[in-house]
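Quick one: co-fold with magnesium ion.
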Amino acid sequence: MRLARLGIAREADLALHLPLRYEDYTSRVPLAQLRAGMSVCAEGVVTANEMRYRPRRQWVCMIESDDENSVAALVLRFFTFYPNQQKAMVIGARVRVFGEVREGHFGLEMVHPKFIVLGAKAGHEAPLSNRLTPIYPTTAGLSQEVLTKQIARVLQWGAILHDDLPEAVRQQEGLWNWPQALRFLHAPPPGLSAEEQATLSAHTHPAWQRIKFDELLAQQLSLKRHKAARASRHAEALTPRGNLTDALLQRLPFTLTEAQQRAWKEIGDDLARAVPMHRLLQGDVGSGKTVIAALAALRTVENGRQVALMAPTEILAEQHYHKLSAWLTGLPLRLLWLSGSLTTTQHKKALAGLSGGEPALVIGTHALFQKEVTMPNLALAIVDEQHRFGVAQRLALRDKGTGAEDVHQLMMSATPIPRTLAMSFYADLDVSVIDTLPPGRTPVATRLVNQARRAEIVAHVGKRCVDGAQAYWVCPLIEESEKLSLQAAQTLCEELVAAFDGNSETESGAPLPKLNVGLLHGRMKPANKTATMEAFVRGDIHVLVATTVIEVGVDVPNASIMVIEHAERFGLAQLHQLRGRVGRGSRQSQCILLFETPLGAIAKERLKVIFENSDGFEIARQDLRIRGPGELLGARQSGVPLLRFADPERDEALLERASAVADCLLKMEEGEAAAVKLIERWLGDKAEFFKA
Ligand code: ADP
Ligand code: MG
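Sure, here it is.
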């Protein structure tokens, strides 16, 4: 149970439960030299002991140095203890204690130190440990000692110490052998140099290198094997038929950028092959992914098959629906809409429209993968803003195809993934990148403004809107409470309605214009959301107050001002997404980030990054640096097991080698067996996730 909490599912996992750090108990520190924060071994004579009951039951002892020249004491505090431990701590006993020193009420203390009782006379004592003591990540109720013993026991097993890497590969890569690396990390040998100790704690020691290499290799092998397995499956070859795709290209009010053409070619080529596509289309906010999705969809319908386009929010799905309806009117194509907000009759009708298997493009939200939906002729599943969905949801959509063949999958994301991360976590995906924005975009000017100067911003936005601009005014989601978020949005809306009622003026007495202010939030009825959004698109609403529901994908070219309240509370990806909602028309756009002081260090750093950068990739790289890969990937959702020891960014060189070795292993005769073992050791049952 307790082990499970540490992510240890099998006994074998214990061997890979590696120390967080080491403590040095190889020498004693005199009590007089102790300082808070040190992890040390010290000795002294017990001079006082007592049970205390406040604030809770505890056994408190005091030890003092027996050196007459230096007077110093240390308090030992135990909240749980055995009677024989208590008996051992009699007054006059000489004890050696190990632990972290901290500042207590009565001077320095150790809470729950390990201790041993020494002989009565100084000099007559047990030898000190001659090696570093590993400290493992642990959990309540599981002591370091017990964990250490269990790990030591497992390390006796031959299978644990078996080197899964073929010897030739190991030597060629100049890596330590497996048992050597494991033993070294769990029980570093005596007499390490200061330099070795430093590399040990920096995780750059050859023993760590071997561990991290294997971890990366197992991940690469798992992903690459799934990719290879997919290549042997079958999907409908959707070949160019031309009539619908060409018609769309002709109708578009723009021509595709070179980057879009490249992406479309890659996707079109994939679709034309009788092997399931598994491709990620990546492109910064506003780079024009929707039209590529539309082309892929039309290619599918041209071939007499069904295609589903799923988006994470009602607003976004609806926007796609409207946009595609406008592009596609008059073309011989059935366009269906499926969302949770349909009436029962509408819902039934939509389902019936799909279950017969006639060619169609269906656009919708999570409603698309519900049980009652059947698309017997589904050949392509497109998932927009894929990081918003869980693996299971994406698979549920894919599995709507009931034929013998696989369904092609196209995933789209505006979260740019730095190269190292993509290499590491997306090794099973093909990736197309739209790396330029459509022409005619004007860069967004970003301003950082203290919340204290908000009134000026109100006046400023008023002035711009009189000139024909439109603004989003975003207030943050309050994590703890949706209700509070909603209140904040309503309050802000009321405030702006009052300011722009036509009878108000600024603090300096200048009149504020009369403007229409609208409100958009997640709790609204879908129909109201749609109506509000439509009014904004028509220009009837000048200022749209919104919670972060507009974060993904919303596209209103005339909106050129984005005001974000309490920008310090937003993550970098969110800020970048929000800012990407403007700068889509010809008008000079602005993003005004209001912040409240004092700013925390991380918030300050984030605002600096967003202020200085407009390139999504650079922002993502910085985000990775600030937050680590987990959140950037939405890892919990994506189901891709995160790396525990290796860090794709820091260990880039190792990652490159692991990727190359994985390719090589998969070609070698004994490679398959090695791959299976490595994957089993590192991923165990988690390898299933990669099936996606
Ligand atoms: P995203 O990649 O963020 O999903 P969209 O597909 O919503 O971006 O496109 C953003 C805007 O750019 C839309 O209004 C779209 O019609 C427009 N657009 C897309 N491609 C081009 C292009 N090649 N030239 C001009 N405008 C384009
Ligand atoms: Mg989009």
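If it helps, The mean pLDDT is 87.
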